Amino acid sequence: MVQGEPVDVRKLARQIKMILTLRCDEASRLMSDSFDRPLNWDEWLALHGHWIPCRVCRTFKKQMQAVVETTRRRSDRNDSSEVCLSPDAKARIRAAIRHCRESS
Fold first, then answer.
1. Is 98 within the bounds of a domain?
2. Do the domain assignments include residue 31?
3. How does DSSP classify residue 38?
4. Eight-class DSSP state of 37
5. Does residue 96 lie within any of the structural domains?
6. 42-80 pLDDT, tens digit each
7. How far is it, in rounded angstroms, from Cα 53 to Cα 19?
8. Residue 99 pLDDT > 90, yes or no?
9. What mean pLDDT is reported for the chain?
10. Rounded distance, CA 62 to CA 93, Å?
């Protein structure tokens, strides 16, 4: 927020509500999103604030980090026997996963 810039009170209220009331299912979605894009300040704050009291989500975070690190290590190997996906195929898979999350 820039000094002198008008404040959108409704948007600010939504951001504060998300920070204070983030549920585990929303936290898991944000964790997943954080591997694909940088989180907004309110998303980041809500997620980190949620991890403080929630042991289950802290454990899930560690598990997701392990999966991502393992996947990255495998992709760094340049083994010609591994199947490589095109950027288009990766985008379709991401879209399908997001669609499934939104549907449930």
1. no
2. yes
3. P
4. S
5. no
6. 899 999 999 998 999 999 999 999 998 888 887 766 555
7. 13
8. no
9. 84
10. 23
**Separation CA 38–CA 41 (nearest Å):** 9
Residue 83 has pLDDT above 70, yes or no: no
Please name the amino acid found at residue 54.
C
CA angle 85, 87, 92 (to 5 degrees): 85
Largest CA distance in the chain: 58
Cβ(47)–Cβ(34) under 8 Å?
yes
- 93 domain-assigned: no
Tokens of 63: 């598990």
- Domain enclosing residue 18, as ranges: 1-75
In total, how many domains does the chain have?
Answer: 1
Which tokens in the block code for residue 51? 């991890």
List Cβ neighbours of 54 (8 Å cut-off, separation of 6 or more): 24, 27
